Amino acid sequence: MKRTLFPLVAFSIMVFAFACTSGIKKEMTAIETLEKELTDQAARPDPEKLAGLLDAYTAFVDNHAADTMAPLYLYKAINLSMGINNGALAMQLTDRMLNEYPKYSRIPETVFLKAYIYENQLSNLGLALKTYQDFLSRFPEHDLADDAQAAIDNLGKSPEELIREFEARAAQQAGN
Q1: What is the pLDDT of residue 75?
Q2: Cα(51)–Cα(46) distance, integer angstroms
Q3: Residue 16 has what pLDDT?
Q4: Closest CA to 92 of 116, 62, 114, 124
Q5: CA distance from start to end of the chain
């Protein structure tokens, strides 16, 4: 009995593993197809395809959180949410990234994006400042550190104020 049961169990495990891998590959292929279609429509992407891609990214993460592609798809979902000006969803996804994938290589960029979302999409300058400062304290040598400091220096200033300051600096440098 034991001899006939072992091959059956082993075969069942192999079939299940193949089915899971096959499902993941299908999802990844569908994502790649949507990405390519949207890249080809760069000037005027179809809003329904954008929504479909966002859904595909988040569904993949929901269904395969342990897969190595999950944090990349979550990062792409954050950027896509920002691109369609859905700051609330972008913030939700950013928090998910920080909580579920704290060792992911793009955590510094994710923290920076969180500050950017607070500043530019949610208009919460207090939390933007706090998050930019957190970014600088955690990642002072990162390529985005200068951008974070510039954002802090210019936080809350209108475009007109920024232009006046730029012109004043240019005039001062020309006079020296």
Answers
A1: 98
A2: 9
A3: 43
A4: 114
A5: 94
**Both structure tokens of 138:** 């955690």
**Distance (Å, whole) CA 125 – CA 152:** 10
HSE (side-chain half, CA atoms, 13 Å) at 74: 29
Which are the contacts of 116, defined by CB distance < 8 A and separation ≥ 6?
82, 128, 151
Q: Tell me the mean pLDDT per 10 residues along the chain, length 176.
A: 48 44 82 84 83 94 95 97 96 98 97 97 97 98 97 91 85 81
Backbone angles phi, psi at 3, to 5 degrees: -65, -35
Q: Give the pLDDT of residue 14.
A: 41
DSSP the chain: -HHHHHHHHHHHHHHHHHHHHHHHHHHHHHHHHHHHHHHHTTTS--HHHHHHHHHHHHHHHHH-TTSTTHHHHHHHHHHHHHHTT-HHHHHHHHHHHHHH-TT-TTHHHHHHHHHHHHHHTS--HHHHHHHHHHHHHH-TTSTTHHHHHHHHHHTT--HHHHHHHHHHHHHHHHH-
The H-or-E segment that residue 108 falls in is helix 107-120
Give the pLDDT score at 13.
46
Tokens of 135: 């970014």
Rounded Cα distance, 168 and 117, in Å: 29
